Amino acid sequence: MTTLKELRDRRRSVQSTQKITLAMKMVAGAKLRRAQDYVEAGRPYARLMKEILKDLATKSQSLDCPQPLLVGTGKSDIHLLLVMTSDRGLCGSFNASIVRQARKLIVSLEGQGKIVKLLCVGRKGREALLRDYGHLIVESFTDIGQPRLRFSDAQYVADSLLKMYQDGLFDICTIVYNHFKSAMTQEVMSEQLIPIRVESFSLQSREAETMKAIYEYEPTEETILNQLLPQNITVQVYNALLENAASEQGARMTAMDSASRNAGEMIRKLTLTYNRTRQAHITRELIEIISGAEALS
Amino acid sequence: MATFPFVLVSPEKVLFHQEVSMVVIPGMEGDIGILPQHAPLLTLLRPGVITVYEEEKILVRIFVDGGFSEVTPERCVALVTEGVPLESMDKSSLEIEINNLLEDLADSKTPEARKQTDQNLEIARAKLMEFIAHQKID
Questions:
Q1: Together in a domain, B67 and B8
Q2: C-alpha span between A88 and A12 (Å, rounded)
Q3: Rounded distance, CA A83 to CA A69, Å?
Q4: Does residue B110 sit at the A interface (CB-CB below 8 Å)?
Q5: Contacts for A68 with CB less than 8 Å, ≥ 6 apart
């Protein structure tokens, strides 16, 4: 039977755990708000970039010099998965769901006889994939965007990505990250990053018609595309990083909220058991005294 | 006077969004003045100063470190990596920045790192030059 002291100690330890989870929830909440602001602030650029690219890309089919970033290498043998996770844990199923999606993709791609390579952003994803797919990891980045995510962080990731592409280390790149829907829900997304999927943003027919204005290009269409395409990759990486950062905080907030609630429930149960046990002790002692007294009289 | 919306955005935030009567943007092959009803144009920007006019007066001068600009008859959009208003710069901090970059250049080992630092150095120098040039005008 558990003694009173043991019960008291357990209750105290659960109480301090609850204090920690509550504090983490608060911190995650504050960080979430900031992360959301960054996501909002990053949207106009990404939207305008997409508009310009949409217009350019729909015309470039007839360009003399096809852009490898746009039309691909002509092969689809080597797939690179850019798996974005967080550096820290304690955020519910945030990392687990990304890793699950990545595993699914690896299995299905390998089933098709493709070569898969992995590029991990974030410590948690690397750790999770290291055991089964360690041989596939070509590179991993950790502590990206600490303490605050800057555009240059995305540039750093995108630059190494583009360099690998130039060196012919992969044909198709897919990015796996969590899309931020709300503080409660995140959705795992896997999007093809390279080559850029023109059809994904072209031919919303009426809009495309109005965009068909004849542009003057300075210096030339090709030079602009050469600059615009890598920049677009960087922006997409940045966007994914931002979404991920917001999702991470959202997931952590939810996880810590339910952890705090569970701790509260546990404290309630422990208190109940503690009080009952205490009562039982008192009753037993009373009985002992009374029966002792009765035996004497 | 006719106006048109001018939007200047960096990936991190919207730097400027307002109705203006003219902007001068640093195009790759020379500065371009944009008035309302400009012909559609897509251009690369070199590191330089964007000057925004409202009613023939200069509203603000912003140094940008290169990017793209899309001009349609209705609007003008500039996508840049970073933009700093000229009035918030000062000479000594710019010189410190250049000196730091020069040290970085001496330290950088790989050719890529050197190229990157070289580019940053060029931007910083352009920034300082524009700053000095505009100081003289004002």
A1: yes
A2: 27
A3: 20
A4: no
A5: A165, A195
Checking ipTM against 0.95, whether it exceeds it is no
The answer to whether the CB of B74 falls within 8 A of the CB of B39 is no
For B91-128, what is each residue's pLDDT tens digit? 888 888 888 888 888 887 788 778 888 888 888 888 88
Query: What is the residue range of B53's domain?
Result: 4-86
Q: Which amino acid is at A32?
A: L
Are B63 and B122 within one domain?
Answer: no
What value does the CA radius of gyration of chain A take, rounded to a whole number of Å?
Answer: 28
Q: What is the CATH number of the domain that holds B79?
A: 2.60.15.10
Please tell me the pTM assigned to this model. Answer: 0.85
The hierarchical CATH code for the domain A25-254 is 3.40.1380.10
Residue B58 to residue B53: CA distance in whole angstroms: 4
Residue B9, chain A, CB below 8 Å: the answer is yes
Partners of residue B12 in chain A, C-beta under 8 Å: 38, 41-42, 150-151
Q: State which of B86, B103, B126 marks the end of a domain.
A: B86
Number of folded domains that form chain B: 2
Q: Helix or strand or coil: residue B2?
A: coil
What does the pLDDT look like over A96-114, one tens digit per residue? 999 999 999 999 999 998 9
